[in-house]
Amino acid sequence: MIMVDNLHKEYKRLVRKEGLFSGIRNLFNRDYETVEAVKALSFTINEGELVGYIGPNGAGKSTSIKMLTGILVPTRGQVLVNGIVPYHNRKQNASQIGVVFGQKSHLWWDVPVIESFKLLKHMYNISNRDFNTNLQLFDELLDLNTFINIPVRQLSLGQRMRSDIAAALLHNPKILFLDEPTIGLDVIAKEKLREFIKTINVEKKVTVLLTTHDMKDIEKLCSRMIIIDHGRIIYDGSVEEIRRQYGTTKTIVIEFENAVSDFAVPNAKLVKSTANKKWFQFNRLETSSTDLVSYIGSLYPVTDLSVEDQDIEEIVRMVYRGTDNSFLEASG
Ligand SMILES: Nc1ncnc2c1ncn2[C@@H]1O[C@H](COP(=O)(O)OP(=O)(O)OP(=O)(O)O)[C@@H](O)[C@H]1O
Ligand SMILES: [Mg+2]
């Protein structure tokens, strides 16, 4: 369905010279530096897959999605989306894909959501029947009716994201590209959106490539993930495998009634500390948060606690290290 082979993308960026009259000097004597945003990227995604596409800031995720959607032309390498070269046949490609960039709405800012939908119906030649069926389904899943007559500009972020994702799917695309669709959403809105993505994937058989910084999105939705860093793939495989290898590390955050100086806890490592708050990293196969809390609680009065999973940046660091929580052994 999606085939990417040895894909590269370089950006040319103007290097600004500092100093007096630099503006004029920049105008006449332009120096460019090359940013290699994507380097030798290769992967294939089969029909019906829901793949997580993750990596730290600046890894090249959005750049790759822009090449897959035909917005950017690769510097070299091949891209095929359902048999089409996206940047050669942008229009044809657009009819078979849906795109959502979480950072930016594709809808018309000043018109009610429903008017944007009608414009899209016209642009994509969507039949009355498909349009109505989809609107009804999306309304059931996303409660669109509560805000469908409001201009996009006045929507909350969650409502805006729901409108955007519905808009991207009105023309029944086979493939959906989601670039950080859950960014900035609260827990409930995220959960709702995840359920929707899952339903679309299972019931409408839409192939999905999902970019996110929230590891929970991946764990709840994807069985496969591709991790990229500095424009290269550093992992392509099952989410389960990553969870097994790297997902056993958790962080317990404990708030104390009074200021407490740093102290050691068996089977855990102090990774961050303020006067009233300490962060301990632990491996849940070696110890449990309950054990840690009862140990720490016996030393100092605790007022609040939470347990956090690892973030994507930490997982990327661990993939590089290729070790399974060896830092915990070191800390003893
Ligand atoms: N239009 C551009 N001109 C020059 N450099 C760019 C441009 N767009 C992106 N870059 C650079 O290319 C690299 C990859 O950027 P990209 O937006 O693809 O990363 P990303 O993985 O989507 O990151 P994030 O998680 O922050 O969204 C970065 O170093 C970025 O600074
Ligand atoms: Mg991005």
How do the strands and helices of this protein lay out in sequence?
Layout: E1 2-15, H1 22-28, E2 31-45, E3 50-54, H2 61-68, E4 76-81, H3 90-96, E5 97-101, H4 113-123, H5 128-142, H6 157-169, E6 175-179, H7 187-203, E7 207-211, H8 215-221, E8 224-229, E9 232-238, H9 239-246, E10 249-256, E11 268-273, E12 277-283, H10 289-299, E13 302-309, H11 312-321, H12 326-331
Parallel strand pairs: 3-7, 3-8, 5-6, 6-7
Antiparallel strand pairs: 1-2, 1-4, 8-9, 10-12, 10-13, 11-12
Residues 61-62, 179 line the site of magnesium ion.
Q: Could you walk me through the main structural features you see in this protein, from its secondary elements to its overall organization?
A:
The protein has helices spanning 22-28, 61-68, 90-96, 113-123, 128-142, 157-169, 187-203, 215-221, 239-246, 289-299, 312-321, 326-331; strands spanning 2-15, 31-45, 50-54, 76-81, 97-101, 175-179, 207-211, 224-229, 232-238, 249-256, 268-273, 277-283, 302-309. With 332 residues, the protein is an alpha/beta fold. It has 2 domains: 46-243, P-loop containing nucleotide triphosphate hydrolases (Rossmann fold), CATH 3.40.50; 248-309, Malonyl-CoA ACP transacylase, ACP-binding (Alpha-Beta Plaits, 2-Layer Sandwich), CATH 3.30.70.250. A 6-stranded mixed beta sheet has the order 5-6-7-3-8-9, with helices on both faces. Strands 11-12-10-13 form a 4-stranded antiparallel beta sheet, covered by helices on one side. Helix 7 (187-203) links the parallel strand 6 and strand 7. The longest helix is centred in the middle third of the chain and has 17 residues, at 187-203. The radius of gyration is 24 Å and the shape is globular. Residues 323-332 have low confidence and may be disordered. The structure holds adenosine-5'-triphosphate and magnesium ion.
